[in-house]
Design a protein that fits this description.
Pfam families: AA_kinase (PF00696). By secondary structure, the chain is an alpha/beta fold. Helix content is 38%, strand content 24%. The protein is built from 13 helices and 16 strands. The chain has an eight-stranded mixed beta sheet, with helices on both faces. It has a six-stranded antiparallel beta sheet with strand order 12-13-11-14-16-15, with helices on one face. The protein has a two-stranded antiparallel sheet with strand order 5-6. Strand 3, helix 7 and strand 4 form a beta-alpha-beta unit. Helix 2 crosses helix 5 and helix 4 packs antiparallel against helix 6. The radius of gyration is 23 Å and the shape is globular.
Length: 416
């Protein structure tokens, strides 16, 4: 049993869908599950739909039509017969989306987000499944929401492993090619939930764990895991092999190739993860597995943009110790701040956070009641694993360093 995951970039148009089919034909698809994301930048456009739903109703239908037009062009490019049932299936998804937006009474953005954005994955997998069928690659389409069960922490749901294991084991047919959606699940009331952005990798790992898969392969538009994001760093190099531990470290610090939660279930069952290019499926790519060292041993660069650095100091020069720190972290948890770096001294405490839920102003209001607060917005957090002096110089040159923290293997630098 093997699990393949294809991201949005790999199926951004009709040629991408055809290439997915070509990858299956080259690699073989016996005993295979395909996990697929929304096509191209659909999730981003779905987020615009949400923005219009809450703030600009006049533009709501226009933004939905953009998504419909995008997918309709892919359908026309893939299916010669405009009477093929897939056209009706996709149209029904849009009817369902519109119906939800008309009847929804919840003001909770996170709930509405999860009920809305997942249509991208449902549409993409339906198109791909129907296309594979007409070219002779018979497959079974699965609604992932019937198999992956979660809590109701919308936009970053936690998996109920007991229920999920039971449902996947009971319902999954390993004798056929299966295709399902990444990123999605459902709660106890069968409302759609999402696993966090880039959560399709995690979906692949969940299925691999529950099905005792032999391997997981993530198909990307890069040759494998690189030591840096080529969008921000020149001369990025391919990493041939990485240990689970090293990959988890890189994911924790924000490396975008592998989702932070993806590696944990794979490590527990020692299931190897491959990251390969969908342009060159015969190439080895990167293997992530047990008892392997980083190859080659070079600095690995990670950058997270648009972060917030909050610096606190006591109003009366008293020490910031356990009780103060406990209060700070309670507030960070309450306002759903993702903490990336912390640094403290006797009378000061700094934290670099990702303001995912846009709760920064409320958090600052609470903090200012007890501390002197300095806030730097839109900062960049650089992390280097296996750093060298030259690597540090490379990221600090021409920038204002606001915070620096070194351990034996890792340096983190916050810059403005």
């Amino acid at each position: 049993m093997q699990v393949f995951k294809f991201g949005g970039a790999s199926v951004k148009d009709a040629n991408g869908v055809k290439n997915l089919a070509a990858v299956l034909q080259k690699t073989g698809y016996k005993n295979t599950l395909i996990v697929v994301s929304a096509m191209g930048k659909t999730t981003n456009v779905m987020e615009l739909v949400l923005k219009n739903y809450f703030n600009n109703k006049a533009q709501l239908q226009s933004s939905i039509q953009e998504i419909k037009k995008f997918h309709n062009q892919i359908l026309l490019d893939l299916f010669e017969d405009e009477n093929h049932p897939v056209f009706k299936k996709i149209s029904l998804f849009f009817d369902e989306l519109n119906s939800f937006l008309k009847t929804n009474k919840s003001p909770d953005y996170n709930f509405v987000y999860d009920q809305t954005v997942g249509f991208g994955e449902l549409i993409s997998t339906t198109i791909i499944s129907e296309y594979l069928n007409i070219i002779g690659i018979k497959n079974n389409w699965i609604d992932v929401r019937n198999q992956i069960k979660t809590d109701n922490y919308y936009r970053r749901a936690h998996v109920n492993w007991v229920d999920t294991q039971h449902l996947i084991t009971a319902q999954f047919n390993k004798n056929v090619l299966n295709i399902t959606q990444g990123f999605l699940g459902s709660d106890a009331n069968n409302f759609t939930t999402t696993l966090g952005r880039e959560g399709s990798d995690y979906t692949a790992a969940i299925y691999a764990y529950c099905l005792n898969a032999e391997s997981v392969t993530i198909w990307k538009d890069v040759p494998g895991v690189l030591n840096a994001d080529p969008r921000y760093f020149e001369n990025a190099q391919l990493l041939n092999k990485i240990s689970y531990r090293e990959a988890i470290e890189l994911a924790f610090y924000g490396a975008s190739v592998i989702h932070p939660k993806t590696l944990q279930p794979l490590q527990r069952k020692e299931i190897p993860l491959y990251v390969k290019s969908f342009f060159n499926p015969e190439q080895d790519g990167t293997m992530v597995g047990k008892d392997t060292t980083l190859e080659p041993m070079i600095p690995c660069f990670i950058v997270k943009k648009n972060q917030v650095l909050i610096s606190l100091s006591s109003l009366d020069f008293s020490y910031i110790v356990e009780d103060n720190i406990s209060d700070i972290f309670k507030l960070l948890h309450q306002y759903k701040m993702k903490v990336d770096v912390i640094q403290n001294s006797a009378i000061s405490f700094s934290v670099c956070v990702d303001n995912i839920y846009n709760n920064l102003e409320e958090l600052l209001h609470h903090l200012k009641a007890k501390f002197k607060v300095t806030c730097n917005k839109n900062v960049s957090l650089y992390t280097i694993r296996h750093y060298t002096d030259g690597a540090i110089k490379q990221i600090e040159t021409g920038k204002t360093v606001l915070l620096k923290q070194l351990t034996q293997e890792t340096i983190q630098v916050v810059t403005k």
